[in-house]
Write the structure tokens for this entry.
Amino acid sequence: MLSSLGLLLACTSATDDTGVPRQVLAGPSLWSNVSEAQDPFDDRPDAVDCPSSSWAVEVDTAGEPAFELDTGQCDYATFHQVSLADVQAGGTVGLSWGHSALTADEPASAHISLRLDTQVLWDSTVAIPADADQTGYEQVLSTPVPAGADLWAHLHNHGDNTWNLGEIWTRPAGGSP
């Protein structure tokens, strides 16, 4: 497990391939599973079994630390941390995420979502079965969000699959992708 490395990366900033500085918004090792009472998502099933052994910080396909969830042990989870940096109005938020080949006994779907404060950064339904995928996503926010805001990562999945959420970062307004 790379908890110390993930925490170290969560406290640093970097320059991306555009030369524009960006700051880490969330660290892979800083996620914590939330209770039913804390969960802001409305698709929570009546019974949730998600032991802490179902998630860890691992190295993703790009060689970077990522938060990984094994849905063979956990079919529903919402994780939380507070954001580590301010996001400016007009600033970009980016993330990398992926999954192994998705399988299930019968065709199904997965719901994955990421929220910062009250803003949905990313929300998607993925059909199962599906080939492995690793991708990035960027969104420009129209309103500012201060450091310390709630950040929520949610996955509701059917089947024995592995998902990962890499670094989540912000780049100031005017820093084009």
Residues 1-13 have pLDDT under 50 and may be disordered. Residues 3-171 form a domain with the Jelly Rolls fold (CATH 2.60.120). The radius of gyration is 16 Å.
